[in-house]
Batch of 2 targets.
Target 1
Amino acid sequence: MSGTGAAAQQIDDATLMQRIAARDEAALRALYARHSGMVFAICLRILRDRSEAEQVLIDVFAEAWQHAARYDTTRGTPGGYLALLARSRAIDVARSRKRSSGTQTLRTDEAETGFTSASGRPSSVAQPIDATLSEERCAVVAEALNALGENQRTAVELAFYDGLSHSEIAVKLDRPIGTVKTQIRQGLIRMRDALREYWEGANEDRTKTTRGTA
Amino acid sequence: MTCAERKDLLFLYAAGALESGEGEALRAHLASGCPTCAGSLAEAQAALGQMAQTVPPIEAPGGALEKLMTRIASDGSSEMKRAPSPFRIAFLSSLAAAAAAVAITSGVILYQTRDARTFWQSRNMNIATLTSDTQPVASGQVWWDKDTRQWRVTVVNLAPPPPGQEYELWFIPHGGKPMPSKTFVVNKNGSATIMVDVPEEVGPLAVAAITNEPIGGVSAPTGSVHLKGQFPDLTK
C-alpha cells in the first residue's frame, strides 16, 4: 500500500449499498452520515419547511434501505440516486400540498429517479465513482452549471427543483414554450458533457493508479 | 417519432418538465425495452443527479437518524404482510419447523459475524447480483473474496421452501455442470446469509444459483432455480 492508503480505507458508496442490501444497519448509518446533509438540503429547497423536509429525508433513506438490493450501479452513483429520490419525493409532497390548495403540476415517478424496472439496459451510462472523488465531481458540475446562461440555468432549476412543466415554466418566465424546451435540453446536455469529460479523466487516472500499485 | 427525436424529450422527461401526455407516450416506449432511449434517459438522470448534489449540504435535524432506524426496524414485519406467497402460507402451517429453522439460521449468522469483519476488509472482491424468475420480490448478492476463496451469499425476500425441503447453493463453472455447495434455510423475513469455501475448479466467470431441494441436499439439482446470477468479467 502506498500513500493512497487513507483513501482506500474509505468504503465507497456502491459497497455501502451492497451492505445495505444485506441488511447491514451500520452501512445505512454510514450512508446517512455521508449524504443526509445533501438530501436534507434538496428537500428543504423544494419544500421550504423543516418538518416536511425531515419527513422526506427519513422516507428517502428508508426507501434506499428497502430497495437497496435492486440498486443498479450502472445507472449512476448512489449519491445521484439519493438526490433524485429526494427531489422526486419532495416534489410529490409539494404537489399534494398544492392540490389541496387547488394548484396542480406534474407527477414524478420512479423513472425520474433512475431507479426503474425499465426492461431496456442503458447502453452507455455514468460510471460509479468513489465517494472520495465526490467533492471534486461536485465542483465540476457546479462549474458547468455556473457556465450556463442565466436563462438556461433558471429553466433547468425551475423544472428540477419546482417540478414545473415546460408550459408552466414558459408562463412563469414569459418565454415561448419552444425556447424553454431548448434551454432545458441544452442545459442538461452541457452538464452531461462536462461530466463525461470529467469521468473519462477520472477513469484514466484510476487506471494509472491501479497499474501503478499492481 | 424516432429515437433521435425522443432523445430531446428524454432530457425534458428526466428533468420532470414534460406535459403528462408526452410522459405517458415515453413511458410506454421505454417499457418496450428500447436500449437507445434507456441509455439516453440514464445519461440525463446522471447529469441531474450530479446537479442535485451540488446544493450546499444542510445538517439534518438531530433525531432524524434514530427515527429512520426505528422505521426500518418496523419495516421487516410489514414487508412480510405485504407479500404473502404460497410458500409462505405453507410455511405458516408448520410453525414448529419454522421456529427451529429460524433458530438455526440465526445461529449461523451470529457465528459468521466475526468472519465477516475480516471478509469485508478484502479489496480483491467480485460481486454477482442474484435475481429470480420464480419469486419477483426475491433478490440476493454474492461477494467473492478472491484472497480467501470464499463466497458470502445474502438473500432477501425469499419464500420458505416447501415442507421437507431447503435451499441449496450451486457453483456453476463457466460452461460446466453445477457443483453442490451448501443447503440453508431462510429466517422469518425470507433472509439468510451464508459463507462458503469456493472449490479450485470454479473459474472467475462462474454462475451462482439457488434451488429448492430435499433436506440434506443433492449432488445434482432437481428443484426450481429461485435465484441466479453471474459474476461480471472484470477484465473487460
Target 2
Amino acid sequence: MEIIIFLALIGVGYFFGSQAEKKHFSELGAREKEMRDLPGVSFRSVPAGKEVEEAILVTGNVVIAVDYFKVFVAGLRNIFGGRVSSYESLVDRARREAVLRMKSEARIINADMIISQRIETSNLSEGAGRGGGAPSIEALAYGTAVRFRK
Amino acid sequence: MEYIPPEDSDVNHNVSSQHPLSEVSWLLGGLVVLLLASYLILGLLVDLIVPYVPPSTEATIGKAFQAVYSDELTGPQKQRLEALFAGLSQHVDPAPEQPYRVHIVEADQVNALAIPGGDIVLFSQLLEEAESENEVAMVLGHEIGHLTHRHSLRSLGRTLVLMAVSDIVLGHGNAVSRVMMPGLNSLQLNFSRSQETDADEVGLQLLNAYYGHAAGATDFFERLSQNSQLSKLESYLSTHPDPAARVQHLKDLIQERDLPLQEKTPWRWPQEKS
C-alpha cells in the first residue's frame, strides 16, 4: 500500500512537475526578451558620463517548490554523488524569475539600468520541522534601479 | 560604453540536458546492482564465517527466537513427539554438543522450523494431517538435517545481511526491511534448493536408521505436491520449493541405496486418551 502511494506521488510529481517546468521555461524566455533593453549589472556605480535622475531599490523574490519526483531523483543521486540535475532546473528557474520580477519593479520608474544587482538563494524547508521533507528554494534578486537624465 | 543586448539562445547552460527519466533509470539500475553485489559478497562472507561460529554462539543467537515457541503445547502430546524425536536424535552423527529440542506450536500451518542453536518447531496442523509416524519422523529428520548442516544460521545470516544492506542504502525501516521483518521474527527462513536436498538426505538417513527401513519418506511431500492448491499448504510450499522434484530425488536415493520398505507405524493426532 505504501509503495503504491509512493509511486503515485512520484508519478504525479513527474507529470505535473515537468509540465509546470516546461511552461515556466517558455514563459521565462518570452519575458526575458521583453526585458532585454533593461540590463541588470553588478557594477557598483553608474557608467562614467551618465547622470542619475532617479534611483530606487528594487527587489524580486520567488519561492519554488520541489516535486516528489525531483526529491526521489536527488535522493538516489545522494548515494552515487554527481550533479543533482533535478535541482539544477529549479535553481535556474528561481534565479531567472526573481530577476524578472525585480526588473518589472524597475519598470515603474522607467529605469534605464539596474546597478549593484545581487542574487541570493536560500532553502526554505531547512529547520521547518518535518525532517527530510521536500525542500523549496527561494531566490531573491535586488539592485538599484537608476534612470539617467536624458 | 554601449549596452548590446544578448542574442537569443535556446541553450540553457545552467541546466543539465539529460532527460530526468533516463537519469532515474541509470540511478535505479546502479542501486539494484549495488544492492545485489553487496548482498552476494556479504552472503559469501556469511557462508565463510558460519563454519567457525561455535555452537555456544549459535545457541545464544537462537535464544532471540524463543518467542516463536513460547506458548508451546506440553503434556502427553509433547512427550509422545519427544520420544520419537529422541529416537531419531540418537542416530545423528556426529552427536551435537547440546541435544536438539522439539516444540509443538498450535497453529493452522503445515510447517516446521529449525531454529539456530537446536530448537525444532512443528506446527500442530502438520501433526494432524500426518498419516503415519514415519512421515512425522521424516519431517523431524529433515529439520534435524537443517540443523546439522547449520542451514538456519546461514539463512539467518543472509537475511540479516540483506536487511543491513537495505537499511544502509535506503535508510532504516525501508520497504525491503519491512517486508522481511515479519519473516525474520517468525524465522520463516528461505533455504536454497540444494539445502533442502541436503536436509532431505539427512532425514532419509535418520528415518532408515531409526525404523530399519525407509517407508513413509516421501509421503509428506507427495501429499504436498498433490494438494498444492490448498492454501494451508502454501506456506510450506513457499519456503520449501518444488515437492515433486524432492519426492523423485528421495525415491532415487531409496533405490540407489537399496533401502528396505516395510509396514508404516500408524499415527493418530491428537492422541486418544488411553
